[in-house]
Design goal:
alpha/beta; flat; 6-stranded mixed β-sheet; 5-stranded mixed β-sheet; 15 strands; 8 helices; 287 residues
C-alpha cells in the first residue's frame, strides 16, 4: 500500500456498512467488498478500506491505525474517543430510547429512579437520566437487550430504535428518547497535510452526491406572459434557464428544486401556468 493512501474504517456488516459502501461507490471510488474481506484498496482513489466491528472503529481512529472512520454517532458518544467529527452523513438514522413492558403505565422519567435498566449504552443512558435528576442501575449487556425485562434481568431497557417494530414484538413500548443518532465520518486529530488533502477531495465528492440526493431537476413549459411569475417560484442554483420553444410565445424553463420543498413548489408552478412538467433525479450536483 502507498504511504500516501488514507485508511478508512467501515463497519464490516449490517445496514450502516451497506449505506457507507453505497455512498463511496456513488462517489466514483472503485473497490472490492463483501465476504470475509477485511481490507480493500481502491483502484482509482488513494484510499484503503478496513472492515471492522463498529465498536472498535473510534479506537482505531483515535490511535491512528485508521485515519478516518464511519460510525454511528451513538457509538462514538458512548466511547468518548478523542477524534474529530468531519461530516454528518445523513443515513442510518436512529434513536436511543428507554422502553418498558407494554402493560405498564408510564408517568415520567422519575419512574426509573432506583430501577435496573439493561442497555449496551450505559454511559449515554446514565448521563441522560442524571441530567434529569434520576439515578438508576445500569445492567450492561452486548446484545438481545429487548429480552431483559421478560426474563427478570431488568425492569426497563435502553436500546437503539429505528421503527419500533422490535420493541413491539418483544412486548415493550418506547417511553423516552435519550439520544438522536446518524452515521458520521470521524478523523484522527493529527492528520498529515497530505492525508488532509485526500480527505478534502473525498468530502467534496460526498457533498456533491448528497446535494444530488436532496434535489430534483425540473423542466417545464410556460407561456411568455407567465415567465416572470413562474421564475419567481424557481430558485435553482442561481436562476432558472429559459429557452425558447418552436411554438411562438412558449418557453422551456430548467431549474433545480430541493426535495423538502418539491411538492409545494410544483403545486404553485401549476397554479402559475406551468405545463408539461418533467422531473428528473440528479446523480451529483457540483457547486
Amino acid at each position: 500500500m502507498s504511504t500516501n493512501n488514507i485508511r478508512i474504517a467501515v463497519q464490516k456488516s449490517g445496514r450502516l456498512s451497506d449505506d457507507s459502501l453505497k455512498l463511496f461507490k456513488e462517489c466514483g471510488i472503485k473497490f472490492e467488498s463483501g465476504g470475509s474481506k477485511l481490507r480493500s484498496i481502491s483502484s482509482n482513489f488513494p484510499i484503503e478500506f478496513l472492515f471492522l466491528r463498529d465498536d472498535d472503529i473510534p479506537g482505531y481512529v483515535e490511535d491512528g491505525v485508521a485515519d478516518l472512520g464511519v460510525v454511528g454517532l451513538n457509538v462514538l458518544m458512548e466511547h468518548t474517543r478523542k477524534v474529530d467529527v468531519v461530516k454528518e452523513l445523513g443515513f442510518s438514522k436512529c434513536r436511543l430510547s428507554l422502553a418498558i413492558p407494554r402493560g405498564e403505565n408510564y408517568t415520567d422519567l422519575k419512574q426509573f429512579e432506583g430501577k435496573s435498566i439493561a442497555t449496551s449504552y450505559p454511559n449515554l443512558t446514565s448521563q441522560f437520566l442524571l441530567k434529569n435528576g434520576v439515578k438508576a442501575e445500569m445492567h450492561e449487556i452486548s446484545g438481545s437487550v429487548e429480552i431483559a425485562p421478560s426474563i427478570g434481568l431488568a425492569e426497563g431497557i435502553c436500546d437503539i430504535v429505528s421503527t419500533g417494530g422490535t420493541l413491539l414484538s418483544n412486548g415493550l413500548k418506547e417511553v423516552a428518547t435519550v439520544f438522536q443518532s446518524q452515521a458520521v465520518m470521524i478523523a484522527n486529530a493529527t492528520l498529515s497535510s497530505e492525508k488532509q488533502a485526500i480527505l478534502d477531495k473525498l468530502l467534496f465528492r460526498i457533498d456533491s452526491v448528497q446535494r444530488g440526493q436532496n434535489a430534483k431537476y425540473v423542466v417545464l413549459n410556460v407561456q411568455e406572459l407567465n415567465i416572470d411569475k413562474v421564475t419567481a417560484l424557481l430558485p435553482g442554483m442561481k436562476s432558472p434557464s429559459v429557452l425558447p420553444l418552436a411554438t411562438k410565445g412558449w418557453f422551456s424553463l430548467h431549474s433545480v428544486i430541493e426535495e423538502n420543498d418539491f411538492w409545494n413548489i410544483i403545486e404553485n408552478l401549476r397554479d402559475a401556468g406551468a405545463e408539461g412538467i418533467l422531473v428528473l433525479p440528479i446523480e451529483k450536483m457540483i457547486l
